[in-house]
Design brief:
Order of helices and strands: EEHEEEHHHH
Mean pLDDT: 92
Strand content: 5-15%
Shape: globular
Oligomer: single chain
Structural class: alpha+beta
Low-confidence stretches: none
Amino acid sequence: MAPSTSSAITLNINGEKYTLPVDHRTTLLDALRERLDMTGTKKGCDQGQCGACTVLLDGRRAVSCLQLAVAAEGRAITTIEGVADGERLHPVQQAFLDLDGYQCGYCTPGQICSALGVIEEHAQGWPSAVTADVRPEAGAPPLTPEEIRERMSGNLCRCGAYVSIVQAVARAAEAQATEAGAIGSVADTKEAAA
């Protein structure tokens, strides 16, 4: 008896669970777009080279065209549809909008998901290929335009909106750091008062 080439899987996407039968060779990108009608994630090269299909898996960036859907079972998947808080745009989305970090918009969902990953990786102190001092005790390097360009290099923009994308990522990172600092200050004040 030949082994089965399909099975039912449950994907946790943007906080909701979806159960669907899939062929074991189905990519996460195809499951999202063709099986679940989540078309925000774009199919660009289908070879992992353009970044248009970038999503977050457990908070880390992943090109969904190279990720098998069955391997994503049990992981938290965030697509562009799950980034905003209802009608309120995420700071990364707002920065892209304010600074024209898009032109045709095709790559924008992948750019935004990648930017979310970049900002989190940087906040955790991860170095990049252009980080001068990679010693853990050196801490996170400044998020300079060079750092942003290197960290976002897996996402291509055919329209060439790179200058605006770098500015948008920098603004969003600054906004998130300011917000985190304000939340930390409130928590510190409450803790000191207790």
